[in-house]
C-alpha cells in the first residue's frame, strides 16, 4: 500500500479545486436545491471541511500502520488498510478522479467508511475504539453530498470488502490483542479538527449548505 501516492493524489485534487472551483459550485448548487442562501464564507468553510475529510485518509493509515508495527500486528493492519485503500487504485471509479476534489471524494468515503466499520467492530468487541476520531457524522454528511445512486454503489463496494473472510479474520486478530493485553494504542486524535467532536465540526461547516 502506497500511502504517499494516496496523499499526493489528494494534494493534487486540493490544488485543482483552488483554480477549478468544482466542489464549491457543487456545494452552492446543493445549498440552493435545499433552499439555503450561502455566501463565500459559508462555501469556504464547506470546502475546507471536505479538504480536511479527505486528508484524514493518509493520516489514519500512517497512524494505524505505525502503531500496529510496534505491536507486532503490521501484517494484520496492512490487510485492513489495503482494503480501505483499494478503491483509490481502480482505473475507472464511479466519480472520475479528473474532477479534482470532487473526484477523490468517493475514494475517501470508501476508505473512511471501511475504517469506521473496523473501528466500530473493535469497539463492540473490546469497549474501545480502534481509530479516532469517530467519523460517523462526517461520513454521513459526505454520503449526502455524493447523493444517490452513487452513495449506495459505494456502500456496496465497501461491504464487499468488509464482509470477506480474510477481513473478518484480520479484525478478529486486532480485537484479540486488545482483549488479551494492552491492545493497540493509536493516537487519540490525528489533530486535523483539533480534537473537537466531529458532529460539532460537521454542523459548523456544513449546516449552512444543507449537509448537516
What profile does the largest beta sheet have?
none
Distance between the termini: 33 Å
Tally the helices: 9
Order of helices and strands: HHHHHHHHH
Dominant shape: globular
Low-confidence stretches: none
- Determine the structural class based on helices, strands and strand pairing: mainly alpha
Beta-sheet strand percentage?
A: under 5%
Task: Calculate the mean pLDDT score and round it.
Answer: 88
- Helix % is 55-70%
Rg over alpha carbons: 17 Å
What is the domain total for the residues? Answer: 1
Structural summary, described in words:
It is a single chain. By secondary structure, this protein is mainly α. The protein has one domain (3-209). 70% of the residues lie in helices and 0% in strands. The two termini are 33 Å apart. The chain has 9 helices and no strands. Helix 5 crosses helix 8 and helix 6 runs parallel beside helix 9 (198-206). The model has no long low-confidence stretch (mean pLDDT 88). It is globular.
